[in-house]
Fold peptide chain release factor N(5)-glutamine methyltransferase.
Amino acid sequence: MNIKEALQKTIQQLKQANIATYHIDALLILKDTIKKDDVYVLTNPQKELNDRQIEEIERLTNKRKLRYPMAYITHSKEFYGLEFYVDDRVLIPRPETELIVDVTLKIASDIKNPKIVDIGTGSGCIAITLSKLLDTHITASDISKEALNVAKLNAKRLDADISLINANGLDFLKNGIDIITTNPPYVLENEYELLSEDVKFEPKIALIPPSGNGFIEDLIEKAKQLTKWLIMEIGPSQLKIIKNSRYIYKIIRDFSNKERVAVFKF
Ligand SMILES: C[S@@+](CC[C@H](N)C(=O)[O-])C[C@H]1O[C@@H](n2cnc3c(N)ncnc32)[C@H](O)[C@@H]1O
């Protein structure tokens, strides 16, 4: 089988499985398998593939047909212009989370040597990006040791100055922090079932807070003893709590006009 035939076959299979992004996904699967770029794949249609490559394309296509996320297949996701390694130990960084970086950069620009901590760092996307853009050390934590291994790998690949701590919530912190950033798990149990199949391959611990909104309320309550600013991603189910807080400074809307990032000033 040559590249053109493999691409056509993969497109066909993904289309039949109702994968909306069948064309681009097929191209990514081909590229990932033969370790070449788009231009090579599209300009070498007659190039014969070996048996190992054909088997690998089949294996990845079957995974994608079950809605396994493309970012886990290619082990790559772009965040704020940086490329992060991802696998199913971590949440796939989302574009709306870049808003946390935007607002933190603005607030940090008025603070001399800002002390910043990122809670629930996952792939490390927020902490690593901030550390690179602010050229400063960032402390990042996660309850999942597996996630921290991915963050460690990304910090090394991207040469970022971060330290990683395995901890539950804010328990490890002492006061004197300028900014705490966090994209905590905020999907409630009853909302989880409604999520798309792709999302269900992501770690549940990254999505569902252990005690529902109590977890978020606890974060805000504890943060006020520790930091001047708390910058937190939220979903619609947290809006009531956020708006009731006397410490809310502003709420930033995402690209679909949903209230997405809450900024608290203590
Ligand atoms: C929504 S993900 C965010 C990951 C990453 N910061 C991002 O924005 O892509 C939430 C992260 O919080 C971590 N987490 C869940 N419960 C936690 C807890 N009690 N303490 C610390 N981290 C926790 C999860 O392991 C997961 O990595």
